[in-house]
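Weekly sync, protein design subgroup
Attendees: M.S., D.O., the rotation student, P.L. (late)

Item 1: inverse folding check
M.S. brought a backbone from last month's batch and wanted to see whether the design step gives back something sensible before we order anything. D.O. pointed out we never logged the input encoding, so this time it goes straight into the notes. Structure tokens as presented (330 positions):
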């Protein structure tokens, strides 16, 4: 019989792609979301439950009523820059909300979890080229702090609660479903690629580069951009892994490509795909931004048998561009 997966935050960007991938892999899917940033037309679960993370009783009932075998937990506030300005909601939703979910899982006897962590837990490591999971967590913004705290909480729950979990540390999610079924629609949008695309579409006047004096090859921040459909297949592998995991335990696993792209390279890629010479300005650094974040992807390959397949910058930008054009009827 097929296993059932609860997807908390399944109406969001990464959650909606992952729901599609889990269904295609033969899982039964239950989406749980409060639509604070998700979209009703991006819910692809076999079942939809509308509710908030803080509602432990509803989460517990949902786990029990639908016979959930494993949970994938995406629900969070996600903007690193915003978390510097308004930290408290980040801790309340991301840490407090996860405690509520863990309490519900304990009450319902569900012990298998895949948690959305982030490259932001590494902070600003200028001493290493690639970030591997054995490095100490050292976030430099409240968003990263909130995710590092949850990782620590999960580690505490292994022995007492028999938790079997993977914390997937995604690098920069981007791109869109190649069939156009879902894509990136954050509101407000703060992520680089969709903002640059808006500049190319003329729905924003220009794109500002946040800082050109970083210690990087062209002075702008370098990130490891990972196609959201690659993230989705990484979740299928992680869910499959925790479902077959005999012993309790939690481990972090990076999902990235192992290569970095600068802000200027992203801007140039969008100019190339769109054919539009939009205006680019150079502004100050954004608070809380590490200079470089690039994944060591050895562990994902060895433990999950996973690697990125769609994450060359051209494919990412083309899929994101096609989705964005479709959104405005272009
Ligand atoms: N987008 C990225 O580049 C990126 C990178 C690393 C990690 N992550 C992590 O991945 C996860 C998903 O990110 P995303 O880009 O898909 O974000 P998103 O905002 O598109 O999706 C989050 C979903 O969670 C729901 N949600 C939020 N708070 C909730 C609550 N209290 N109760 C119920 N539902 C709630 C939202 O409605 C939304 O559907 C987040 O945990 C984020 O921290 C994202
Ligand atoms: O108008 C803009 C927007 C962004 N940037 C820069 O582009 C880079 C990427 O920024 P963004 O797309 O906002 O992503 P990050 O701040 O790197 O954070 C994303 O990637 C992290 C993992 O690396 C996740 O933890 C976060 O949730 C997710 O928002 C950064 O240097 C930004 O300063 C600009 O120069 N101009």
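Designed sequence read out in the meeting:
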């Amino acid at each position: 019989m097929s296993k059932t997966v609860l997807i908390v935050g399944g109406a969001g960007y990464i959650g909606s792609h992952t729901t599609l991938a889990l269904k295609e892999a033969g899982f039964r899917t239950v989406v749980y979301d409060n639509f604070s940033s998700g979209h009703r037309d991006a819910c692809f679960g076999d079942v939809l439950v509308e509710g908030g993370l803080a509602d432990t009783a509803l989460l517990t009932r949902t786990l029990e009523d639908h016979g959930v075998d494993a949970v994938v937990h995406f629900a969070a506030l996600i903007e690193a820059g915003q978390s510097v300005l308004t930290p408290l909601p980040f801790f309340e939703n991301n840490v407090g909300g996860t405690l509520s979910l863990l309490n519900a899982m304990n009450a319902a006897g569900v012990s298998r979890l895949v948690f959305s962590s982030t490259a932001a837990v590494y902070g600003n490591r200028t001493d290493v080229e690639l970030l591997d999971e054995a490095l100490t967590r050292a976030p430099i913004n409240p968003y990263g702090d909130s995710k590092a705290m949850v990782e620590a909480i999960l580690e505490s729950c292994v022995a007492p609660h028999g938790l079997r979990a993977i914390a997937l540390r995604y690098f920069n999610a981007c791109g869109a479903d190649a069939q156009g079924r879902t894509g990136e629609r954050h509101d407000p949008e703060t992520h680089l690629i969709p903002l640059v695309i808006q500049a190319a579409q003329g729905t924003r006047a220009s794109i500002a580069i946040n800082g050109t004096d970083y210690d990087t090859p062209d002075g702008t921040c370098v990130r490891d951009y990972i196609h959201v459909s690659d993230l989705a297949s990484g979740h299928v592998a992680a869910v499959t892994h925790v479902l077959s995991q005999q012993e309790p335990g939690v481990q972090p696993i990076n999902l990235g490509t192992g290569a970095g792209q600068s802000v200027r390279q992203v801007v140039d890629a969008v100019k190339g795909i769109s054919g539009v010479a939009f205006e680019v300005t150079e502004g100050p650094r954004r608070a809380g931004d590490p200079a470089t974040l690039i994944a060591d992807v050895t562990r994902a390959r060895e433990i999950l048998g996973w690697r990125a397949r769609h994450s060359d910058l051209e494919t990412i930008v083309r899929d994101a561009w096609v989705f964005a054009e479709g959104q405005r009827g272009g």
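Discussion: Residues 4-173+226-255 form a domain with the Rossmann fold fold (CATH 3.40.50.720). The pocket of nicotinamide-adenine-dinucleotide (ligand 1) is lined by residues 9, 11-15, 33-38, 52-53, 74-76, 78, 93, 97, 116, 118, 170, 172-173, 186 (CB under 6 Å).
Action: P.L. to compare against the previous round before Friday.
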